[in-house]
């Protein structure tokens, strides 16, 4: 099942349930081994469309599905399509032209995903904002968006106010800098700076009216000091990695949302670090197994050494126990 967590992360009604349901059922529409890279809702060029489409970029094609999971458009990467991305104040356009025919999608959401479709489909990347990526690190994440953090509903259309979380990095709103995981532990925390001030003020207009009506007693009873609470605090998101640090202020009323986002960053970054640590171990194991298999099949070494190689092949699951017993008997005859 495709991960639709990024589609469900949007507030303000942009998380369309039909689109999410289509995304979660995409497996039946994919070829074996086909890898999903981007999931993004979008609308047809015609403004009469009531429901969004789901744009799905894979390593083989760009496809568009409607709310009933029917395939609407499809463009294979091997057809030499031309991609054009046009940002607007509160929206964008993504146009895909192939064999003289154009497929136009508006309001690809969030806007950065429309630009990411263009970059991943064409392989055109700028080095700007990617100075912190280590050598060999992909210029764009090859997995769907996991989560976003924004200031308000309108800021979803402004990348400068939105932080995008992917499986291997966050892309900072404002600077647009790519901040990679993998160089070591990543820790996201939320803290509050400042204070809450209480001030007192008198309503002179109310006092004057009360005096005119009730005399001096009204001045004592009406329009007395009122306590006003001014929240001067600022909520801060702090994300620290061995080679970079990111901070961003938010309104205190965003505390639950920002705290959940920080927890998601910690979880995703830890998972990525664990996967990166496991890959070299698996590669080493595969290399050892391959060397043992090559040496055994080539007949190099004495019979005792070949028996050890044969045991390694069995222990690594490359050959069965029956294969091991049969070959062991044959080798023992040679000793």
Give a brief description:
This protein is α+β, with helices and mostly antiparallel strands and 335 residues long. It is built from 7 helices and 16 strands.
Tell me about this structure:
It is a single chain. This protein is of the alpha+beta class and 335 residues long. It has 3 domains: 7-180, Roll (PH-domain like), CATH 2.30.29.30; 195-231, no CATH class; 281-334, no CATH class. The protein contains 7 helices and 16 strands. Strands 4-3-2-1-7-6-5 form a 7-stranded antiparallel beta sheet, with helices on both faces. Strands 8-9-10-11 form a 4-stranded antiparallel beta sheet, with helices on one face. The two termini are 54 Å apart. Residues 204-211 and 217-222 have low confidence and may be disordered.
């Amino acid at each position: 099942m495709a991960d639709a967590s990024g589609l469900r992360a949007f507030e303000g009604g942009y998380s369309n349930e039909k689109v999410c349901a289509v995304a979660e059922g995409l497996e039946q529409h994919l070829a074996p081994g086909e890898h999903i890279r981007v999931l993004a809702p979008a609308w047809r060029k015609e403004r009469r469309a009531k429901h969004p489409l789901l744009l799905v970029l894979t390593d083989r094609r760009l496809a568009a599905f409607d709310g009933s999971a029917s395939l609407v458009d499809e463009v294979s990467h091997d057809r030499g399509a031309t991609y054009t991305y046009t940002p607007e104040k509160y929206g964008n356009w993504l146009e895909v032209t192939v064999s003289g025919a154009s497929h136009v999608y508006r309001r690809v959401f969030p806007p950065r995903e429309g630009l990411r479709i263009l970059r991943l489909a064409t392989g055109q990347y700028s080095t700007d904002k990617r100075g912190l990526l280590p050598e060999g690190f992909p210029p764009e994440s090859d997995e769907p968006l996991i989560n976003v953090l924004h200031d308000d509903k309108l800021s979803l259309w402004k990348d400068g106010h939105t932080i995008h979380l992917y499986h291997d990095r966050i892309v900072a709103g404002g600077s647009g800098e790519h901040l990679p995981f993998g160089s070591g532990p990543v820790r996201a925390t939320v803290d509050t700076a400042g204070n809450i001030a209480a001030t007192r003020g008198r309503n002179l207009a109310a006092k004057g009216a009360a005096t005119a009506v009730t005399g001096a007693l009204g001045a004592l009873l009406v329009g007395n000091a009122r306590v006003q609470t001014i929240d001067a605090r600022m909520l801060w998101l702090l994300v620290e990695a061995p080679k970079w640090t990111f901070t961003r202020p938010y309104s205190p009323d965003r505390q639950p949302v920002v705290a959940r986002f920080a927890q998601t960053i910690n979880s995703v970054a830890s998972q990525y670090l664990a996967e990166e640590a496991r890959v070299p171990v698996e590669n080493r194991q595969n290399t050892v197994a391959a060397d043992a298999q090559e040496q055994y099949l080539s007949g190099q070494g004495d019979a005792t050494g070949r028996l050890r190689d044969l045991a390694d092949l069995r222990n690594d699951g490359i050959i069965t126990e029956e294969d091991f017993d049969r070959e062991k008997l044959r080798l023992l005859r040679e000793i």
